[in-house]
Amino acid sequence: MDDNQVCFSAHPQGEPQKCDGDRDLVEQGKAVETFGGKVFVRWDAEAAVTAFAPVAYFLEFLKANGLWQQWVQDCPLRYGSPNAPPKADILGTILLSVLAGHKRYAHVTTIRSDGVLPGLLGMKRVRSEDAVRRAFLKGEAAEYAQWLHTHLERNYEELLKEPWILDMDGTVKPLYGQQEQAVRGYNPTKHGRPSHVYQTYFIAAIRMVLDVEVQAGNQTASLYAQPGLWTWLDRRPQEQWPKLVRGDIGWGTEAMMAECEKRGLRYLFKIRQTTKVQRHIAGLFGREDWASAGVGWQGLSSELQLSGWNRKRRVVVLRRPMREAVATAAAGPANGQAELFGSMEVLRAGELYEYAVLVTALEEDVLGVAQLYRDRAEAENVFDELKNQWGWAGFTTQDHQRCQILARIVALTYNWWSLFTRLAIPNRHTEATTSRPLLLHGIGRQTTHANQTTLTITSNHAQAPLAVILLLLFREPLCPRPTPDQKKNEGNTCAQQGHGSRLRSLSISLRDVEIRTFSYVGRIFGVAPLTGVVVHINVSRSVVAHAINRIAESVRSEMGVRAKQKVIVATECSGGQKAQDVYSIPTA
Question: Most CB atoms within 10 A, among 156, 247, 408, 442?
Fold first, then answer.
């Protein structure tokens, strides 16, 4: 035999060793000691899981109304390289990041490995923070502005045909770099810090953002926001104009009021207490006809013409007593004469008042005017939510154009989410700090079998059964499944209507419950809703309880847990009386 030859066994003895996963974990040091004992940890980077599984319902809402598809299609973003990412990937990454509550481009990294949501949005994958940051670096600002204006208006176009109030205000965004138009101006929180100003217009009460303009930090005055406001208003038909224009002390100027009067718009503003305004207040000290203005305030209606005004206007002077301790400390001279300290009055009895002066074109009484201005405080809540919960305080770049684009994209996403949550919780606005954990957060595992994809959702929220009921309630009544004949007929009807949406009253009977609500009607079958206002149930309480229990039957199989959820249902009886019942809904 040749010594150079090597012999191999044709039949090796024994069987190959089987892989022992747990033993491998122990050998690799992946056993973690906890207070509950030893736990083996296994990481799976390829699993199709997501931390925001309930967002699938929100994506269905966008798809049913054609909001997402049209937004991506109209985007003027263009790439020259064949290796560039699709527009849907860039816009989808921004959408998912804003929904998750991110405030910085760097936060996009936390959703890069999501194995479910990119597929649900029709994306290839979540793009990097650098790809998103550089996306809008080139291109014409006018094209991007027209694109975002069009889709912002699509959210509220039909709502403007109903009576509504326009709220205007600005908020300061402090900056910490070398950003374009970052200059020093009025900054109540970071004195002397360069900033941007977000001049914003809202639909009062329902918290819909009409538009936002990002301006230099020294342009906080309403004078800089008025051209954009009048441009926005003048391109709309008069039947969509607001019934009232409302603003704080920065908007009570001659230029603003003159433009409102020129267009026949009623207005309500607070004015500064200049020397002449203080003299006008002093002339009312001895009056005994102060009327109640609510919440501890008293008011008087009078007329006033300041030196910069071209005519006399109605002013409503409001006052309320200061706290007793403050009044005692500021009592001042004991000669019994009334004195005016800025906006405070000291009377003979030592009672101290603070004052506020409103100028208005309204004809309502003092109580009505005062209450309308108090309602304006809701605009501050919108700013608080958008800055602290939706990323208006972040997504900053060195150039102004991208700051403006991202501000409007955040506002658009905020409007979409507000409409979606209104369908699930129609009786009130739910801020993101509450709605995200309930309707967005949830672990999801996606599986595919027999060409059918299933998304299994597990929520850690204590009110998870209620979340399921809310999502089913908003989907089932307003998105019925039509028959093939109905699809054909309604499809033809929608084709005749074109791409626009219209506002109409839906009357849908589901599980013996007749629900009437005003909704946007999209192009899908003519019944896909875009927004819902208050839902009134015109049936007996027993029928409502029966319908909710019917819905709970479908919830039971999906939740797989033993729980009871109390649901408050507002019913409107035939006699016009409203009542609230609490039903205990079994889910197992």
Answer: 247
